[in-house]
Specification:
alpha/beta; Spore Coat Polysaccharide Biosynthesis Protein SpsA, Chain A; ten-stranded mixed β-sheet; 11 helices; globular
């Protein structure tokens, strides 16, 4: 008699989509999960609305009723914009408090969708490797071409080389570049994109969940730093495929805003990441190096007849959100003014 594997015996997965003002995209993301079979893995979906200013919450309630989502999809209609990490914590902490929590949770950006049985691929891989605490998928543009989804941890070398952004210097520091090749084969890495990543729930609970000080950006990087610190591994699996319209939910692409100044919360998160992972002394050195690199960017590109390619208002914003808190304030505060995160943070600056 053949042995069969029942759905109940397979590892369970909770998918979390955190929305802010992108209702149509978020509904499509949920539908992309419900449309897959997941090769027998029990899958539940959690859709969080981060107090969107429009009618997103009402539209989700309507979609839940009209599309027959039923018990497969749980809505979390929040009254505060928690940001990314705290928005996910709302669900993750509730899952961890269950008598029988799911084995894994998968973060899916609202502007992303499953392109194959990515959840099953990631879960099956992690089932056989208990030391793996997070695994990321290949992320593709709408035309199918991959984008960088696996990374090295940021440090002094990467900050200097990327900020100078001048051919010979950039090449000299290429080995420190944060983004790894988009066509990277399966391998262990420092961290993977939070747009499509599966975490082992017990490992994240042990690490302390997402750090609530981060509002947006660097929160998944810092969490995966802590997973490494507790002996875990992070892997990139290109056979798991997710489509992603990068920046649709935030206006950011490649760590920079598409058209305007870098949002203040980006600089806050940059500072917090370096303080929390490397300490205040190292964060100060890295910040000074980045500020110096910004000056070199301006000078070298002007000398070669090109416009500087720094974010708009780089010197002013970096000074206000990074240098002043690091050298004259409270380096570990979420914001230089010490206020707690509020919905007004996420403005389309």
């Amino acid at each position: 008699m053949e042995n069969t594997v029942t759905t109940e015996s397979k590892s369970s997965i909770a998918v979390i989509v955190v929305n802010y003002g992108t209702a149509d995209l978020s509904i499509d993301a949920v539908e992309s999960v419900l449309a897959r079979q997941h090769e027998g893995h029990p899958v539940e979906v959690h859709l969080v609305d981060n107090a969107s200013p429009g009618d997103d919450a009402a539209r989700f309630a309507q979609a839940h009723a009209e599309r027959g989502w039923g018990e497969r999809v749980t809505l979390w209609l929040e009254r505060e914009n928690h940001g990314f990490g705290r928005g996910n914590n709302v669900v993750i902490q509730a899952l961890a408090a269950r008598a029988a929590p799911p084995d894994y949770f998968f973060l899916l950006n609202p502007d992303a969708s499953l392109e194959n049985e990515a959840l099953a691929i990631l879960a099956d891989f992690m089932d056989t490797r208990p030391q793996v605490q997070a695994a990321g998928a290949r992320i593709e543009r709408p035309n199918g071409s991959p984008v960088a989804a696996a990374f090295r941890f940021p440090g002094a070398g990467s900050e200097f080389g990327s900020t100078v952004s001048f051919g010979p210097v950039t090449r000299l520091f290429a080995r420190y570049q944060v983004a790894m090749p988009a066509d990277l084969p399966r391998q262990q890495v420092d961290w993977v994109s939070g747009a499509a990543v599966m975490f082992r729930l017990a490992a994240v609970q042990k690490a302390g969940f997402f750090d609530p000080d981060f509002f947006l950006y660097f929160e998944e990087t810092e969490l995966m730093w802590r997973l490494h610190a507790q002996g875990g591994e992070v892997w990139f699996l290109p056979e798991a495929r997710v489509g992603h319209e990068a920046g649709a939910a935030t206006g950011m692409q490649g760590g920079r805003h598409r058209s305007k100044a870098q949002p203040g919360y980006w600089y806050d998160s940059w500072r917090l990441y370096h303080v929390k992972t490397r300490g205040v002394g190292a964060a100060r050195r890295i910040a000074l190096l980045k500020f110096l690199a910004g000056g070199l960017n301006f000078t070298l590109r002007r000398l070669t007849g090109r416009a500087p390619n720094l974010p708009l208002n780089f010197r002013k914003d970096f000074t206000a959100h990074v240098l002043k808190p690091l050298f004259g304030g409270e380096p570990g505060l979420a914001r230089p003014d010490g206020k707690t995160p509020k919905a007004v943070w996420l403005q389309r600056q």
